[in-house]
Amino acid sequence: MTRILIVEDDPDVATALRVLLTRAGYEVVAAADGREGLRRLFADGPDLMLLDIGLPGLDGWQVLERTRDMTDLPVLLLTARGAESDRVRGLRAGADDYLPKPFGNDELLARVEALLRRAAPARWAGAAHDDALRLVPERRAALWHGEEVRLSDIEYRLLQLLVRNRGRVVTTDQLLDQVWDDPQGIGRDRVKFAVLRLRRKLQQAAGEREWDPIEAVRGMGYRYRGEAGGL
């Protein structure tokens, strides 16, 4: 049965969503705050998340960021904020859809069905991306050929974005936009030097193999190609 995680602090809204989705044939798990939402995300492995932005403590933006560190699970944002800037922020942060409150039951179900129809099975960052690499989001680290590589926050986010787009070129502008929280004024050389540091750490961990999994594509950006022969 398809499982949906609801992260919503308003008990009335959470109950209404649970009843609606259960009647539609979904299995529902729920959390009332961001930290519990992340725990349920990891423990229950849902197929889709309904995420409220206005959560106490760890807010929805933070939950979304940490979710994207772990998985490409479909996320539908639910919020009382209907401003275009908030919608744009949510989509750029990795949400798959955005539904302002109040919303109709039929529209919510239609959006849920559409997201599930389009989504491939969610990949988790803790799973092996190939025979050589495993990301460790809770430690902001990577296991490369079984050797743990400790990464800075920027280096981890660079690697996470590249492996999520394995085999495809991620442009320098895309890296600036999605890896740095505030890309304004950050020169393109900053990207080059950060990638160089990341590549150096992975090469050191590889030892005698001397295989560089990150390919620089001249004039465009970078591509994660994994282990030799992995593409």
What is the count of distinct domains? 2
Structural class: alpha/beta
Number of helices: 8
Helix content: 40-55%
Structure description:
The chain has eight helices and eleven strands. With 231 residues, the protein is α/β, with parallel strands linked by helices. The longest helix has 19 residues, at 188-206. Helix 2 (34-44) runs parallel beside helix 3 (60-70). A five-stranded parallel sheet has the order 2-1-3-4-5, with helices on both faces. It is elongated and about 55 Å long. 42% of the residues lie in helices and 20% in strands. The model has no long low-confidence stretch (mean pLDDT 83). It folds into two domains: 3-118, Rossmann fold (3-Layer(aba) Sandwich); 133-224, Orthogonal Bundle (Arc Repressor Mutant, subunit A). InterPro entries: CheY-like_superfamily, OmpR/PhoB-type_DNA-bd, Sig_transdc_resp-reg_receiver, WalR-like, WH-like_DNA-bd_sf. It comes from Streptomyces melanogenes. Residues 3-116 form the Response regulatory domain. Residues 124-226 form the OmpR/PhoB-type domain.
Features:
Arc Repressor Mutant, subunit A; alpha/beta; Rossmann fold; 231 residues; five-stranded parallel β-sheet
Summarize the structure.
The chain is of the alpha/beta class and 231 residues long. It has helices at residues 11-23, 34-44, 60-70, 84-92, 105-118, 153-164, 172-179, 188-206; strands spanning 3-7, 27-31, 48-52, 75-79, 97-100, 133-136, 141-144, 147-150, 170-171, 214-217, 221-224. The chain has two domains: 3-118, Rossmann fold, CATH 3.40.50; 133-224, Orthogonal Bundle (Arc Repressor Mutant, subunit A).
